[in-house]
Design brief:
The protein folds into 2 domains: about 10-240, Amidase signature (AS) domain (Amidase signature (AS) enzymes, Alpha-Beta Complex); about 270-465, Amidase signature (AS) domain (Amidase signature (AS) enzymes). Helix 2 (about 35-55) runs antiparallel to helix 3 (about 60-75), helix 7 runs antiparallel to helix 13 (about 450-465) and helix 9 (about 315-330) packs across helix 10 (about 345-355). It contains 13 helices and 13 strands. With about 475 residues, it is an alpha/beta fold. The chain has an 11-stranded mixed sheet, sandwiched between helices. A two-stranded antiparallel sheet has the order 4-5. It has helices spanning about 20-30, 35-55, 60-75, 120-125, 170-175, 195-200, 230-240, 285-300, 315-330, 345-355, 360-380, 420-425, 450-465, and strands at about 55-60, 90, 130-135, 145-150, 150-155, 180-185, 200-205, 225-230, 270-275, 305-310, 385-390, 425-435, 440-445.
């Protein structure tokens, strides 16, 4: 598998592992391809990705082939369930899957198989998705890189010495290498968008509540579930299957969200905000150059681009109050004698959350409410926001932060992602070029509920940038 800098890892994948949802559906419908032969090729590719980059906790060969045979029978009789029927799919080691063990990357969790699917998984299964295997995550998904005490270090296929980001790092690696077409990720502070940026793939953090969650995350309403793919079109198909109302998720907004149907998109005349200043740290100059170049291309296409700053203050501290309190809650559920087996960084984060006073936590919630309302106003003044997806390029695997940056939490370098978890808007990462032979992601943020609009913009922008 090619991991030479500047060469996308998908480039050497077998042809059957590079086909998108639309082409697979057409081929399955015509009989030109069988879901079984595609599953076989994908399973082989997954084994290769696992041996080189440690992207999976396990690969379910028997289950995948059984599901693929059922999908093949449906397509033959014209009884296919959806556009994703028979499409190879991976699931992160955080969402519940009936019959699978879900360990959250931790030695402290129960190894008993799950008794039912999470709502998002149930939606994908109902659509006929073929579950290839389970992808890696850091312990409890607590950080934006992927290594865990239970499953070890996941590596970036662009350069195995580097991290693919996290916490949905295994899903991003599977996507980047062709070990599946659709990949379920979670995003509590950038966990979909960061690894998409670090691996040159596409990821969408949907509007909060677009995809139901059960059981609820200890990280509360900053935690989202979304699609990771190689294109906005595939993400749209996946989101349509996994989203929707579930009575198992009380935190969902009541009622229907705007449609995900694709609409013709033109940048001409659109007012767009360009956000280039993260809450902490600075943007790598090589990343800044690529993002500004993308913005110029969008401006040339007719957009009206203005610099913007986020309306909130102390956003990192606000996020830490929510995130570290969640870590403390999770740690409190683990027997003390097992703490020695946990990721030390997770224990430190939980300790930070444990020191938070109740008054401080309530104050952070109130500050978040004010910030969220101001973000809604900003996205009323501007149709979309553009920004880097990350402030830095991929760095050494097994580290929480780049070497030389000092002992810091991951939030120092992931400042373009977690503010949008606090405010719950849809946001995607789109590949926009390489710097120093490594991928760089452009983030597109839209108003709450307008996930389809963000996907429309991403599709149009991908085509625009590919032509430059």
């Amino acid at each position: 598998m090619n991991s030479h800098p500047s060469i996308p890892p998908i480039s050497d994948a077998p042809e059957l592992c590079r086909i998108d949802v639309a082409a697979l559906s057409a081929a399955f419908g015509s009989g030109a391809l069988s879901p079984v032969e595609v599953a076989e090729a994908t399973l082989a590719r997954a084994e290769e990705a696992q041996s080189r980059f440690n992207a999976f906790t396990f690969i379910d060969r028997d289950g995948a082939l059984q599901a693929a045979r059922a999908a093949e029978a449906r397509w033959r009789t014209g009884a296919e369930r959806s556009a994703i029927d028979g499409v190879p799919t991976t699931l992160k080691d955080i969402v519940h899957v009936k019959g699978w063990t879900v360990r959250y990357g931790s030695r402290s969790t129960d190894a008993a198989p799950m008794l039912r699917d999470a709502p998002s998984v149930a939606g994908l299964r109902a659509g006929g998705a073929v579950f290839i295997g389970q992808t890696t995550t850091p312990e409890f998904g607590w950080k934006a890189v992927t290594d865990s005490p239970e499953f070890g270090i996941t590596r970036n296929p662009w350069n195995p010495e580097l991290t693919p980001g996290g916490s949905s790092g295994g899903a991003a690696v599977a996507s980047a290498t062709g070990a599946g077409v659709l990949h379920l990720g979670t995003d509590g502070g950038g966990s979909i968008r960061v690894p998409a940026a670090f691996t040159g793939t596409f990821g969408l953090k949907p509007t909060f509540g677009r995809v139901p969650a059960d059981p609820p995350s200890v990280f509360g309403t900053v935690a989202h579930i979304g699609p990771m793919t190689r294109s906005p079109a595939d993400a749209r198909a996946m989101l349509a299957a996994m989203g929707g109302r579930s009575l198992r998720d009380w935190s969902q907004p009541w009622g229907e969200m705007p449609s995900l149907d694709a609409q013709r998109f033109d940048w001409k005349g659109r007012k767009v905000g360009l956000w280039m200043t993260p809450p902490t740290g600075a943007v790598d100059p090589a990343i800044e150059r690529l993002i500004l170049n993308a913005a110029r291309q969008i401006e040339t296409a007719g957009a009206i681009i203005e610099p913007v700053f986020l309306p909130g203050k102390d956003l990192r501290e606000m996020f830490h109050a929510h995130w570290m309190a969640g870590a403390a809650s999770r740690l409190a559920q683990i027997p003390t004698e097992m703490h020695k087996d946990l990721d030390p960084g997770f224990v430190e984060a939980a300790a930070e959350g444990g020191r938070l006073g109740l008054g401080d936590y309530i104050a952070a919630q109130q500050a978040r409410a004010r910030y969220g309302a101001a973000m809604d106003q900003l996205l009323a003044d501007y149709e979309l926001l553009l920004s880097p997806a990350t402030a830095c390029l991929p760095f050494a695997a097994g580290r929480e932060f780049p070497e030389g940056s000092g002992p810091e939490r991951w939030t120092k370098w992931a400042g373009f992602s977690y503010p949008i978890n606090l405010s719950q808007q849809p946001a995607c990462t789109l590949f926009c070029g390489t710097a120093e032979g490594l991928p760089v992601g452009l983030q597109i943020v839209g108003p709450r509920g307008m996930d389809g609009f963000v996907l429309d913009a991403a599709e149009a922008t991908g085509g625009l940038l590919a032509g430059t």
